Amino acid sequence: MSWRTTIGKNLQELRFQFCQTSEGSKGVREFIFAHYQEMKKANPRFPFLIRECERLPARAIARFDFGKEIPIPLDGLDKDAVDKRLAEVVGWGTVMPRSTESEGSFRTSLISTIAVDNAGERMYLGLTDGQLEEHRVHTLEQEVRVSLGARKHVGKKAVTAIVHIEAAKQLATLCDGVLQLLDQETLEGKHVPGPKGLTAIALESGQARRPRLAAAARTGKRSAAVVVYEIFPGVAALGPAARCVSQAELAEPLSVKGMAWLGGRLVVATSLRYMLLDPASGAYVQLFALPEEAPPPTLVQAIPGADLAVLLMDQAGIVVDAQGRPATSALTFPDTPLALAAAGIYVLAACADAVHVYDRTAAAWVQTLPYLGNARAAPGQQLASAQGARGACVLIAGFRRVWLYRPVALEEQARELLRARQYSAALALADVGAAAGGAWAPIAFAEGAFLLLHELHFQEAMDALRRCSPTPVQPAALFPLFPGAAAPWATAAPAPHLWGLHAPLPELRSLISRRRGGGGNRAAAVHGSGLRNGEAAEPVGDAAAAVRIGAGGGAGRGAGPASGNGLADADMAREGGAEAEAKRCIAEYLLEVRERPGVEALDGVDALAATLLAEQGAAGRLEGLLAAPNAAPLAAVACALRRCGRWHALALLSARRGDVEGALRLWQDLASGAIKEAPAQSGAVAEAAAGGGGGAAAVAVAHAAALLADEAAVADALALRCLDWLLDAAPDRTLGVLTARQRLPVEPALALLRRRSEPLLRSYLEHLVLDRGDPDAALHTELALALVVAALRLMPPPNVSMLAWQRACAARERDAAGGAAAEELRGLRGRLCALLAREPARYDLGRLLAAVAPTELWDEQVVLHQKLGDHGAALRVLALVLGDIRAAEAYCTRWAGGEGHLALLDALLRPGDGRPPLYAEACHLLAAQGAHLDPRRVLDALAPDMPLALAAGTLAAMTRTALHRRRAGTLSRALHRACHLSAAAERAELMSRRVVVTEERACRLCHARIGTKMSAVFPNGLLVCYKCLRKGDPHIPGWLASNLKTSGEDMHMSCWRASTRVTSPY
């Protein structure tokens, strides 16, 4: 009889693995094709498993017991050789020793599920025979002891799920598809009514007043339901233990294997897919789907307190948030986990050989914890896991063993990692602790920074110090590195209260030379891989199967020190380069930390930062520090700045410290070239030189002018002394200083400008008169005379006619110089005319008129004559000199009126100087303005020899206009008189009316008797009381109401106190 029809009773499973296309698997493919049907018919309940994969060497695996398997190589064998090889191994009578895991498995029940309370003090085991066991966990210093506390029979079949509900002090158990709630003290309880055939339960880990429990059940061939219960505290003898708050239906043919709460939603896992369900609305979406041919196992694990969950996808763990989106990078497992658990920031993957710990925040492997006793999960076996909501412990259970894992405190992990010289991992843990508000995190940052300083990792050290506040370690703790620059504050550096893992800081050069020479101690040593994530120390365990998580290293990944350092490259081999790098990093740190509150010895911090920046040539950052508010003492920093040639920075600091005269002296020397600024890649001098702005001289002049413009910083006497230098160095900036200083004495400044610069004098006078509004008449007169002088300089010489000069200017305007001169002249004359036209005129009119009279400044003469009231002279200039009759008419309309028109007419008819009369212009003036003039005065003004024929039409029109105005006035008076008589007659008629009020008279509106009440009567005879009158128009008082209308008629009202018989005028 062939072995294929009589398989040995000790064999439990036979698995084939081969490639579908390789030549080495051809024999296995032919064997299966020829004999699989025969083997399956002869052994219908025996499991034959076939796995096909490319480039997989052909073999078979015979499993006899838990973890007892024999691999059978079949690669390269033909069909008959495969049959012979299998017959040698799996024939009748072949047997292997039974594993310790299965000893007594036929005599006692096995563990089917597990749970633990939040404190990790009670452990609950669900067994395959329906028993529930409570075990008390006693944690000692070096071991963990467990004692059986109670046992409860909850069903006839295996307990498939246990949930500890701390808020309600109950246990939720799932056995035989029925949900029960048990009191955690007595284990007494009752069934929860609802659907039968429940397959999974999940507890919401929020802080709600009443916890919620979700339960999933099959409700049909292609449907499932998720019911959410609200759990009441305690298991009451009367009344329900839970209340159904929602129920959602899923169109899912497969049973629900697991669930996890994400905020107010549920992640539901079946054998083929993961779904995100909203139990309140019943809406759900599919997150991930697995292939139906050979789906890997599905697991879902909630992360307590984070609203996250881990979904198992073959050998990867996907961490999703409440929206179902990946929250971090995927966790890559070495093998498909049999169970998942979470504790704080760690995710534990229980595989067949060991438990692998991952940091979910960094998606990095942390630690591998082998099962104690070299135990190993059998093929096909599922492990159970449980963890408390507070992360106190994690439980992994096999069939007959439970492994208890307790996480090591992050503070202790960070300290151990620092001792193990794994700085990157320690600082990453400190970041997690800082996010959680741990008081130890700043200490870990500071301790790591000092250790990195000892290893010359200056940039990493300063980055670590930036991540902690000044409370555990002040910036003054770095003063020992620079005993010379920080000598005045040597005693001000407080000793930091840290963990004592680092040695005291020596002087920087001593530190570098000692490290280069290999003289560092162990506490200050770092290996080359200490800046990489993922390294860990050796695990710490005990004899009671309690293993601490988070600070250990696992199988195959030692933590021994390595050689080499990425930061110690060829450029940093020289001590000078290391010192420069250290000064640069420390200066950057000091510049950043000085802005934080709570920094002590700030003057020392600023002095050291300024010294380091000066020595490094960082002129830009140095100037920014010293120009802004700072606490650096001038005496402590001046020597370093002079030594490094940072004169501009020294002047900035001097000005900031109140030594204004010293700052101005430095800038004067820098502008004159008496001192030279050291070269630099940044800073104001370097930027000015690169931009073509004049270099150090331009920078010095600009800053000196800005300082002189500050009245609060520079006294007037010092400013006046420096103005003489500034006029030579930068005349354009002198005016800015003068205009900025509002309290500067005017006379000394004007005296200086009169000697040095007429344009600046004129501009300063314009500022005083026009911008500041100084009422001094002398200043107004001086400004006007200065403008006159400047304009005359740009005008033609006295012996050149204006026409010839204008022609020359027109020819010169083709080039830029001529155009600029003409534009300047127009601007000067415009400002002069505007000044002369200001009201009130505070200048000396006589002096100005005497100055402009002999010149050709005609517009200015017109303004001055107008100010003096000599309109005739102004009109003669406009009409006879400039020949602008329209301007003369406009002048008369604005300033002179009718007298001015007559004066203009006289000027046109009698121009004088032998010039002929301007009859055409005179007739035009009469035609335009004659209607507004007295004809008789016009006739008197006409010259005796003027031909009347020229003005006959104008004079006739003037006469007709005068007659028309007289007749129109007469008619207007008559019309006004008629209107007055009509109004007086109407008033007389109204005043003649009377009304009689008796005791029987009543109001026409409310029918109340008038009696002695106030009343009113309207022109149409309507009599009303005062109350009804007020209702009709509440905004008009009764004694003032008028022009009211009733039935379309005008009404007038009169009010009085009525008597038995009263007559009153209306």
UniProtKB/TrEMBL annotation:
Residues 108-384 form the CNH domain. GO terms for cellular component: membrane; mitochondrion. Pfam families: CNH, L51_S25_CI-B8, zf-Vps39_C. This is CNH domain-containing protein. PROSITE patterns: CNH. Keywords: Cytoplasm, Mitochondrion, Protein transport, Transport. It comes from the Eukaryota. PANTHER family: CNH DOMAIN CONTAINING, TRANSFORMING GROWTH FACTOR-BETA RECEPTOR-ASSOCIATED PROTEIN 1. The keyword Hydrolase does not apply. One of its GO terms (biological process) is endosomal vesicle fusion. It is found in: Cytoplasm; Mitochondrion. It comes from Elliptochloris bilobata. InterPro entries: CNH_dom, Ribosomal_mL43/mS25/NADH_DH, Thioredoxin-like_sf, Vam6/VPS39/TRAP1, VPS39/TGFA1_Znf.
